[in-house]
Known about the structure:
273 residues, mainly alpha, MetI-like fold, 11 helices, 76% helix, globular
Amino acid sequence: xxxxxxxxxxxxxxxxxxxxxxxxxxxxxxxxxxxxxxxxxxxxxxxxxxxxxxxxxxxxxxxxxxxxxxxxxxxxxxxxxxxxxxxxxxxxxxxxxxxxxxxxxxxxxxxxxxxxxxxxxxxxxxxxxxxxxxxxxxxxxxxxxxxxxxxxxxxxxxxxxxxxxxxxxxxxxxxxxxxxxxxxxxxxxxxxxxxxxxxxxxxxxxxxxxxxxxxxxxxxxxxxxxxxxxxxxxxxxxxxxxxxxxxxxxxxxxxxxxxxxxxxxxxxxxxxx
Length: 273
């Protein structure tokens, strides 16, 4: 008697229907339409909540006269410097913790102490040590980045399979060569996650620091733009500055997703497709 065949279970379909980026665009567009309708129906004062059309017009105005690009460039220069330096310091500390094991306890303890501390809380010290200027902002950004990155890199290094370490040792790899050729590639998913978290921490910190520095010394980028437009009661310009921050954040998130697709997902280092 033949045994009835059982249909094989099919894995959940991935990537069917609309592209995720397109779905996000539809959601954003729907939110803007709802915003416009609510503003018109409620009759709220433009001084409190401007319409999205007014925000877009002001955004294009700032973009056309070059102000928005100048503010954005100032912010990104400080952000890239601070985040890059923080990531480099975190990777060096984590590498030292592998080469010199007692350093691991120091790094983990310091990260556990400093990571919960709001980065903006060290702003008064930055003012005392570096004065009002880019150096103090970069210091605050580095402090916000280095500990989160160190924790993620340390977890990645600790989860490297022991078989890979043995292979590296059998091939004659020692110390920094072992870290470069074994630990870093094997812990790439954790490192990318750490970089993404570091970017988010640094992005929020630099905007918050610019708000304070702008009030003190008339310096800064997008945060300073939001501050002065708030003083001038230009709410539509404030929303335009906030929108610029959101757009840049979405663009960087898209870039991280692209990097993950062509690296860890393509190489089968994660279970997500």
